User: Fold this.
Amino acid sequence: MRYAAPRGTRDIKDGEARAFQQLEAAARDVFRRYGYEEIRTPVFETAELFQRAVGEATDIVEKEMYVFEDRGGRKLALRPEGTAGVVRAYLEHAWDKTGGIKKLFYSGPMFRADRPQAGRYREFWQIGAEYFGNPSAQADADLLWLVKDLLNAYGLKDVQFQLNSIGCPKCRPAYREKLVKFLHARKESLCEDCQRRLEKNPLRALDCKTDGPKLADAPKISESLCEDCRKHDHELKALLKAPGLEFPFQENPWLVRGLDYYSRTVFEVTAGGLGAQDAVAAGGRYDSLVKTLGGPDVPAVGFALGMDRVARARYGEELDKSVDHEASNRVFVALAGEGVGPRGFEIVKRLRSKGFVAEIGASDKSLKAQLRWAESWGGHYVVIVGEEELKKNACLLKDMAGHSQVELSLEDLKSRIDSGQLARS
Ligand code: HAM
Assistant:
């Protein structure tokens, strides 16, 4: 019996694993400068947390959540997203009682049993951030700048920000009613999902892949915003457009998002070169969520980016390479003969302590086999320690690119290692 990774999952390895490390390292640096602290929440939580936070009538909760019972009969779910768990943690640690402002970031796997396709997985990785306690448009703008800085740091091309306001619990019901009326009049032409969701989650029809394009003359939520929401929206756009700041974005009145917790600002970011699944990041404000989950009125805004997609957009085919050939100073120490192990270790340890990437071979393998190994491992140099050389306190240094080989005294090799350069210029 051979086992395979479950459908929609894969092993993050080779170039993709290196890409993930780089994305996380660059993100940490940006988050630090914006004053965010890291949080690592559990990969599973009480299923009800997501039902309440993300919404019963969303695709995520209706069809995509991995729900299971543990041995104690508790109903749990693998997290389909990061926000609900972070809000749960915010309340559990009573951060609302210590000033209320909290800026947290996270990275890790999320799980949704969606239909797998290129760029869409059942286990995928997100980097995200949540900013609690700031109700003002400045918080939205600050977060948008963060996302932009991050995507710039990643060097993504053709990045586009789409922005909308979806109002608040005060003004959305009236809009919803208008929209339901509009959709009812066209019910027959709507897809099955939208017909079913017509009463429970009509806004989703606006960005439904099938029905969205047919609804260009639907009422726009921007025309139904209450005074406070309109003010917030104006302030944000004024900030983004301020001279000298000029944040590039497009307004998209049909952007509604697939999670129910949003209010006011929502945004989505796409990048080039990704095909159909080109949304690399998304987020928005969720001023009612802390209260929905049993806390006080704490406004919040956040986002998450899809590492799988960002890595693909940034690194392309590099992700499939098993060796990072870019990284220089990879040195393989080949062992040719009896009793050369200790000398080999002396050299490999010195190499590693001076910052080289070093690998030690195996005296049970032939020199030829070790040289093939060194090549597939991506070695730039091979130090060959043979019985003859050992006796002379010497070794051979092979330049894999130049195909040259020289004999060096151990002292010479050590001084070259200590200088960080094996080649003599
Ligand atoms: P989301 O739009 O569901 O938002 O996901 C954010 C990003 O995660 C997407 O733009 C996409 O890049 C990536 N993503 C989502 N599903 C998949 C998948 N099946 N395969 C690969 N990548 C995927 C959220 O999750 C919200 N929690 C964001 C947020 C944080 N809002 C406020 N705070």
